Amino acid sequence: MRLLSRAVQSAVGQRAWSRRHFWGWLNAVFNKVDYDRIKAVGPDRAAAEWLLRCGAKVRFQGFDRWQRDYNGLPTGPLGRYKIQAIDATESCIMYRGFDHLDGLKHVEEIKFNKCIYIEDACLERLSSVETLQESLRIMEVVSCGNVTDKGLVALHKLRNLERLFLSDLPGIKDRQTTVDRLQTALPRLDLSLDLD
User: Fold this and answer.
1) Under DSSP, is residue 44 helix (H, G, I), strand (E, B) or coil?
2) Engineered SS bond to 92: which of 27, 72, 185, 196, CB 3.0-4.6 Å?
3) What is the pLDDT of residues 52-74, one digit of tens each?
4) What domains sit in the chain, N to C, each tagged with a CATH number?
5) SS3 labels along 122-150
């Protein structure tokens, strides 16, 4: 009987691992960058497709409504719809897809809430996009367990960042040094913290 119990537990454990592996693989596929698609439809449309495919939302310039439905993306002349805000709450966006951010010139706000794949490399990559260094004003990083001090410090490159809200980031070890470095690099920054 004990042997049967171990066999059942082993089979159930393998099935759970197999499901996690499958979803990780599928999320990686959703994040794959198609550079030909970016050339064909422009950076804003391609980025919107990527974000919606991964479960995020976008708001276009001149619109109050958030776009959530991939199949409901607006059509019209290429370049007409510019992404102004990104809400990646509980989405599966990951570093692999961050090349989609290149060329976005109008993004003023980004929210990363409960994003299990967001890590330091993602924040470093986002901070290195020159157009986002100019346009990004508001950012939120909440409950992203893979973000550490290193990723947050990289945000100093976002020179026009006005508001940054950080909460529930267990990877932050040296809170005061991180805060000091950000506030020194970005003196106009309104930094809200809830890291305890």
Assistant:
1) helix
2) 27
3) 999 999 999 999 999 999 999 99
4) 31-194 (3.80.10.10)
5) HHHHHHHCHHHHHHCCEEEEECCCECCHH
Which two structure tokens, joined as six digits, stand for 104?
Answer: 């976005």
Distance CA 172, CA 32 (A): 29
Residues with Cβ within 8 Å of residue 5, at least 6 apart in sequence:
none
Any residues with CB less than 8 A from the CB of 67 and at least 6 apart, and which?
48, 52, 57, 58, 59, 60, 73, 74
Query: In the numeric block, which tokens belong to residue 102?
Result: 């290149």
Q: In DSSP terms, which residues pair with 166 in a beta bridge?
A: 141, 193
Global pTM reads 0.86
Considering only CA atoms, which of 57, 179, 46, 44 is closest in space to residue 111? 57
Alpha-carbon separation of residue 6 from 15, 147, 172, 188 (angstroms): 14, 37, 39, 59
pLDDT digits (tens, 9 = 90+) for 117-144: 999 999 999 999 999 999 999 999 999 9
Amino acid in position 51: L
Residue 171 C-beta-side C-alpha neighbours within 13 Å:
18
Q: How far, in Å, CA of 108 to CA of 137, rounded?
A: 5
